[in-house]
């Protein structure tokens, strides 16, 4: 029998070793064999266009004119957005812009103030 631990994501017992990594063939999750790096690898780090780490509640500035689909509105360069919330997905910043309303932005088009 295998003495390897089950997969932390799907609890599959069919894990296997590949060098220093453990791999689950059912969900394709990979993690470190020592288990210490497992928690750190699951945390997503959000970075702005300059590489600065973003956190919930930050104030950001838009670095490019952003056209809003379906409308004639544009978020202009230099627009400050306060109290952002980070979320998963392609558009990873959830915010409210004065004069426009709630919307989602990509972190690659903003800079932390």
From TrEMBL:
Protein family membership: Belongs to the YjdM family.
NCBIfam families: phnA
InterPro entries associated with the record: YjdM, YjdM_C, YjdM_N
One Pfam match: Zn_Ribbon_YjdM
Record-annotated Protein YjdM N-terminal domain positions: 3-32
Native source species: Pseudomonas versuta
Segments forming domain Protein YjdM C-terminal: 47-113
Protein name: Protein YjdM
């Amino acid at each position: 029998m295998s003495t390897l631990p089950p997969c932390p994501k799907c609890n599959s017992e069919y894990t296997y070793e590949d060098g220093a990594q453990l791999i689950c063939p059912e969900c394709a999750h990979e993690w470190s064999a020592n288990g210490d790096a497992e928690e750190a690898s699951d945390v997503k780090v959000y970075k702005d266009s300059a590489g600065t780490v973003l956190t919930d509640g930050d104030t950001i500035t838009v670095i490019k004119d952003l056209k809003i689909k379906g409308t004639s509105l544009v978020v202009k360069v230099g627009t400050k957005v306060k109290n952002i919330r980070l979320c998963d997905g392609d558009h990873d910043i959830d915010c409210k812009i004065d004069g426009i309303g709630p919307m989602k932005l990509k972190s690659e088009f903003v800079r932390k103030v």
